Structures are given as C-alpha cells and as structure tokens.
TrEMBL record:
A molecular function GO annotation: sigma factor activity
Protein name according to UniProt: RNA polymerase sigma factor 70 region 4 type 2 domain-containing protein
Ranges where the RNA polymerase sigma factor 70 region 4 type domain occurs: 30-66
Keyword terms, alphabetized: Sigma factor, Transcription, Transcription regulation
Species annotation: Streptomyces griseus subsp. griseus (strain JCM 4626 / CBS 651.72 / NBRC 13350 / KCC S-0626 / ISP 5235)
Family named by the database record: Belongs to the sigma-70 factor family. ECF subfamily.
Amino acid sequence: MKRVTEIAAPVDRAKAAIDLMATYQGWVLELSRVRREAIEEAQASGMTQAEIATKLGVSRGRVGQLASAGPPPERAFFGTGQVTVSLGGKYEAGKGPDQNPSEVVTREDLDNFEHLRKLLGGMKLEAEYEVIPTTGIVNLNRDNHVVVCGPRLSPIVAQVLEGDDNLRFEKDRAWHLLDRKAGKEYRSPLDEDGSPGDLGYLGRLPRLDGRGTFLYIAGVHAIGANGVVHYLENNLAELYREVRTKRFSTLISCRYDPDTLAVLESRRVTPLYRHEG
C-alpha cells in the first residue's frame, strides 16, 4: 500500500491502485471459498451450526449465511484466478505448411471452451483461450491452466502423459485408451461400429518445472473431449471431494447427437487413479 501511495505520477499511481485492488479482490474471493469449504467440512464431521457459531464467535444465523456465501469449494479444482484454456491447433483444411495456412481449432474444441467458460463463470472465474501452434509447443508451467489437446498434436503433452502408469493412449489399427492396471482396452464406438460415442482422458498432470499441475482433457476423437467437459459440468462437486487438487487420471465415455454433436450423457468408466499419496 505504501509503495502505491508513494508513486509520484498520478496516472501511474491510479493504475497501481487498480492492479492492487484486483489482486485483493481475488484474495477475498478465494478466502470466502476457503471459509465456505471449512464450514462445510465442520458440518460434515458432525458439528452443529450452534457449535460452529460458538467456536467462531458469531450467531448461528451468521454461520448459515457464511456456509452459502462465496464461490463453491470445487472452484479450487480449476485454480484461484483467470483460467487459460489451451486448445490444440491444426492447419486449415486443404492447405499444407508451405501455403501459409492459418492455425485453427475444431468446432468441438471451441464448443468445449464455451462450456468451460460458463462453468467457470458460475464459480466467479474468468477464462480465456489460446491456440497451441501446430508445432505442439505449449507452456505447461502456469497456474490455472487447462489443456485440451490430443497427444498426437503435442509432443510435450505426450511426454508428460508417459508418466501416467495407469492410463495411456495407444495406437494399432486405431487410436484407443488403455487401462494398464486393469489390462483393459477402451475403443471408441466411432471406430468399432460407427455409433455416436467416444472416450476421453481426464487428469491433473505435473508441470515440467515441478512447481504445480495442469488439468488435461483429450478424446480419442475430438468429440471425446466434449464428453469429458460434459462430465465436469455434471459431476464437478463430487469429483473435487474425491481428488481435491491432487494429481489423478480417469477415463470418461460419452454418447452424443450425431446431428448437433451435443453430448447426451457421460460417465466415468475407470477408477480415479491417484498419482500421489
């Protein structure tokens, strides 16, 4: 605060104040989430609102207010600030690298971002997206980061996925997902009989700098990632209670409308594999 008030130039001082206010507002939001989660945990452990009120030095009615104030606990699953969603980029259809093609994302991935943006907005988190260049080079060493990109499009992501001892992408006659622990293959219905269904991978994976994690979403086909996002929209609170912000991975299957590509249902088909104790 003292540093801001001592800035001589008025406009610079105003800008510094605006930036600091934004930082403080972010802290207030996160602390209100932490408070709400703590009260919910206390109630789940068997404490009554009256007992919690006595411990906090507030009225029982105030405890009821605090238990519903602020963002939901599962907001922490995505982070504490603006979320960046990295979408895998491809060359424009019909153009080769020597024709200066633009890098584009699929309709399915843009739809994924819109669904994620709405989900995050409901938890008072802003979101932006970026396109991963066709080289597949993406900076994974960031907080509040979601990557939606198949390992075929990014060698860096493929390298990180090698560290998952339980689940991985494999290819023989077609790409598919393998549960190594259970010894079971999961193949896309699109490849097996052409029916409108797919599979996707969901996990929290380690950053390359060892200083955190990022969320990773990918499908056998592009629509498989939509199934994962649909699962998050409908199961985030339960998933957060299970894994919090720890590293994990699991597989999601989905069915969708072949005309609109809207996901109709999604479900988890493997355990939640924890990557750390």
